[in-house]
Amino acid sequence: TWKWVVGPMFLYLCERLVRFWRSQQKVVITKVVIHPFKTIELQMMKKGFKMEVGQYIFVKCPAVSKLEWHPFTLTSAPEEDYFSIHVRIVGDWTEGLFNACGCDKQEFQEAWKLPKIAVDGPFGTASEDVFSYETVMLVGAGIGVTPFASVLKSVWYKYCHDATNLKLKKIYFYWLCRDTHAFEWFADLLQSLEAQMQERNNADFLSYNIYLTGWDETQATHFVVHHEEEKDVITGLKQKTLYGRPNWENEFKTIAERHPGSRIGVFLCGPEGLADTLNKQSISNSDADPRGVHFIFNKENF
């Protein structure tokens, strides 16, 4: 038995030593942004830190807990001179981080008073392959929309810098959530991208659909009254919010007709049930002919 135990234990100890070494590297919090619905954005810098789109890191704040590490998806793009995470305050540890950063105080917080942060990572995910396709479908459910903030930012930077050499030509983005207000920071990002693309006369580069899966009778009445307004009453975007869940069979068939003979990347960050549905649709809507359309499914589950 000891022969089978020693090997894994040695690898585990090596991993712990690497994490301890990484935790001693200096991380500087350059900016703390408070978003609505008790969500904070931490912008940080670390010497030698290199990331790709959609990756995640483990974060430890000794002022809150000396032992706890928590995973957070990076919401910044590799082209930016900092890396960032968005933290929603939903438990004891996140509440402690919120208070340690001085977000519970009204006055301005001095930089030297911000807590020390230890970072382990970044670690890879399926979203890194998004630039390997000409056409992609990005599907985020609830908090699963977080990695696509990094993807969309990076796509825009690459598009502005050198659009001719960018292999990715078309993005279909789907965001499913019960309440968009909890992710207003992401809606702000979409508004910015929408405005910039209209300025460059390339609004067709990104097609996005926001599906609200939970609402009450009062909200429904409000939607009907303001339906004719130019911008959506919930997100402030020109693209109107849809209610319910998407008909995935129709969505896949429509995209297949628009891009015959293409390899289309399908990227999901969401629950296992949705992953099964998208995987089945990717298989059933791919042609047997190698020259036909093929949907390549990639997933992250939470």
UniProtKB/TrEMBL annotation:
Q: Which UniProt keywords apply?
A: Cell membrane, Electron transport, FAD, Flavoprotein, Glycoprotein, Heme, Ion channel, Ion transport, Iron, Isopeptide bond, Membrane, Metal-binding, NADP, Oxidoreductase, Phosphoprotein, Transmembrane, Transmembrane helix, Transport, Ubl conjugation, Voltage-gated channel
Q: What does this protein do?
A: Catalytic subunit of the phagocyte NADPH oxidase complex that mediates the transfer of electrons from cytosolic NADPH to O2 to produce the superoxide anion (O2(-)). In the activated complex, electrons are first transferred from NADPH to flavin adenine dinucleotide (FAD) and subsequently transferred via two heme molecules to molecular oxygen, producing superoxide through an outer-sphere reaction.
Q: Which domain of life is it from?
A: Eukaryota
Which GO cellular component terms are attached? Answer: monoatomic ion channel complex; NADPH oxidase complex
Point out the signal peptide segment.
Answer: none
Q: Show the GO MF annotations.
A: metal ion binding; superoxide-generating NAD(P)H oxidase activity
Q: What species does this protein belong to?
A: Grallaria varia (variegated antpitta)
Q: Which SUPFAM superfamilies match?
A: Ferredoxin reductase-like, C-terminal NADP-linked domain, Riboflavin synthase domain-like
**Which Pfam families does this chain map to?**
FAD_binding_8, NAD_binding_6
Question: What catalytic activity does the UniProt entry give for this protein?
Answer: NADPH + 2 O2 = 2 superoxide + NADP(+) + H(+)
Where is the protein found, in the record's own terms? Cell membrane
Q: How does it sit in the membrane?
A: Multi-pass membrane protein
Principal subcellular localisation of the protein: membrane
This chain belongs to the protein called NADPH oxidase 2
Q: Which cofactor does it need?
A: FAD
Entry keyword Transport: yes
Q: Which Gene3D superfamilies match?
A: Nucleotide-binding domain of ferredoxin-NADP reductase (FNR) module, Translation factors
- Extract one GO BP annotation from the record: defense response
Domain FAD-binding FR-type, chain residue ranges per copy? 19-129
Entry annotated with the keyword Mitochondrion: no
* Alphabetized InterPro entries for the sequence: Cyt_b245_heavy_chain, FAD-bd_8, FAD-bd_FR_type, Fe_red_NAD-bd_6, FNR_nucleotide-bd, RBOH/FRE, Riboflavin_synthase-like_b-brl
